[in-house]
C-alpha cells in the first residue's frame, strides 16, 4: 500500500509530445484510472510509472520517495500487461512464483505464497497447467496473481480486459474490484471504456492528447465534467453555447433562441458566456402544440429516429442551427404508452433544471 | 469428375517431383550395395564389400575424423556467437540495422566459391597458415549467418512484453535472458546448431581453399578419390552421409519443427 504521485510527467518522441505535464496522485489503497481515447498517452504514462520508459520531464514519487531514475526491476511494482505476457514455457504456479524466485524467497515460503495467491484469484486447481491450456479469463487471473504475489507497492494494469467478451469482462471487473479492495492495494488502471472506469475507480483522470483534462471521483467526472471533451467522453453529448441571464432565483440561460432554466446553484454575473451540457437520456420530448417556442423548452424538428429496442434515439434540428440528441425509453411509462416520434415531426425538447450542467 | 481429375493430376505432379528429388539418392544407396567392381545400375549382385572397402581407405577415415571434429568445433563456436549477434541485432534501434541484416544474408546468396577465396585471402593476410585452424575459422564464419538467422527468427516471434514483465517482477538483464529469452529461443538455437553441423560437414567450396595435403575433409577426400577410381565405395560413403544427414534432419524436425524455423 503506497502513495503514488506523478509530478509534471512529460514524454516526447521526436517532436511528438506523447505525454504532457501529467500530475496525478493516488492515496494508499486508492484505485486510480487513466481514462481516454486511443493514442492519448495512457500506456506511455503507465510505462513511465512502471519504469519501462523514462520520462523526458517530471518525477514519479512512491510514498514520497523519488523513483524516477530507478529501473523497473528495482521499483517493486506489479504490472498486468495488455497482452498479459504470461511466460509460455512455465506452468501457472511457475509463472506466479517467478517474481518470488527473482527475489530469492525461500522455496517453501514461495510455494505457500503462490498457493495462497492462486486461491485469491480462484485458480488453485489449475496450478500445474500451462498458459496455453487456460481460457482467456483464467489467463487474466494468472497475470493478476503473478503481479500481486510479490506484494507490490502499487498494482498497474493496462487495459487488461480489452480482449475479453462482454460477459467475461464484467465478471473480471467485479473480480478485480473484489481483489484490490480485499488486499487494499493502490492501483493504477488504464482503459478507454468509461463504464469500466466508473465501476472500478475511486478516482478517474480523463486524458486527452497527452494531458489530464480532469481528475476527480467518478461522480464528479460524470456529473460535473470540467471540459467539453470530458463531457463528451462521459456521454454528455448535447452542448449549447449561451449567456447567463440573472433574474429571479436561479436565473436563466439564453441559448439556441430560447430562455432555458439554469442549473441550480450557479451564481454568475449577468451576460456571462456559458456552455450548457445535457445528457441525451435526460431530455424529454413532447409534440409541439403550436408554432413558436414554449417557456423553458426548445422547439425543433425530428430529423432522425432510431429504434434500439428498450429505447429510441432522436436527432432534433433546432431553428438556431444546431442539433440535439435525445434518448427516450420505449414501452409503458406510468401506465401510458410512451410516444414514438416520426421524422419531420415538430417537437418540444425540455429538461429539468437539475439535469443540465455548466461546463 | 473434373475436380477428381484435377486432384489426380496434382497428386501425380507432386509424386513426380518427389521422385525427381529422391531418385538419385535412392540410386546411390542401391549402387552402394553392389557386388560388382564397377558402378552399375541396377546392381547385378548384392554385398556390403564396398562399405568395407570404403572403411579401409585411409583418406576416408581421416576425412571423416577431420570433418566431424571440424563440424562440431565450428558449430559449437558459431552458435554462441550467433546468439550474441542476433540478440544485439534484435535489440538495436540503430538505423543501419536492416542493412546489416541484409548483409548477414550475403553468404546465402554469394557463391560459396567466392566466400572460399575471400577467406583464403583474408586468412593469408592475417598470416594464419595452419590448415586445421584455417578450416575452423573458415567454417565458423561460413555457418555463422545461418545461426544468426534462425536465432533472429525465433527472437522475432517473442512478445517483447515478456521481457518487460520479467523486468517488473525484479529480474535483471542476465536473469531475464537465462529464464525467459533463452528457454523460448532454445529451439532456434539448437536448430541453428544442427544446421551448422550439416552445412560444415557438407561443405566443399570453403574447405577447398583452406585444406592442405595433411588435413583433408571427407567431401574433399571423396572428390580426390573420384579422380582416380569410380568404384562403388564412393556410393557406400555417400549412403552413410545420407543416413547421418537424414538422421539429423529428422531430429531437427521432430524436436523443433524445421519448417517453422525456415519460414521465420
Ligand atoms: N516508442 C514510441 N515512439 C514513438 N511514438 C510513440 C512511442 N510510443 C508511443 N508513441 C506515441 O505516443 C502516443 C501515445 O501512445 P500510448 O501508447 O501511450 O497511447 P494509449 O493512450 O495507450 O493508446 P491505446 O488506447 O491505443 O493503447 C501515440 O500517438 C503513439 O503513437
Ligand atoms: Mg495503450
TrEMBL record, chain A:
One of its GO terms (biological process) is quaternary ammonium group transport. Keywords: ATP-binding, Nucleotide-binding, Transport. It comes from the Bacteria. The keyword DNA-binding does not apply. SUPFAM superfamilies: MOP-like, P-loop containing nucleoside triphosphate hydrolases. Residues 4-234 form the ABC transporter domain. The keyword Nucleotide-binding applies. GO terms for cellular component: ATP-binding cassette (ABC) transporter complex. GO terms for molecular function: ATP binding; ATP hydrolysis activity; transmembrane transporter activity. This is ABC transporter ATP-binding protein. It comes from Roseomonas acroporae. The lineage of its organism: Bacteria, Pseudomonadati, Pseudomonadota, Alphaproteobacteria, Acetobacterales.
From TrEMBL, chain B:
The keyword Secreted does not apply. Belongs to the binding-protein-dependent transport system permease family. One of its GO terms (cellular component) is plasma membrane. Its main location: membrane. Residues 64-252 form the ABC transmembrane type-1 domain. This is ABC transporter permease. CDD domains: TM_PBP2. It is a multi-pass membrane protein. It is found in: Cell inner membrane; Cell membrane. Keywords: Cell inner membrane, Cell membrane, Membrane, Transmembrane, Transmembrane helix, Transport. It comes from the Bacteria.
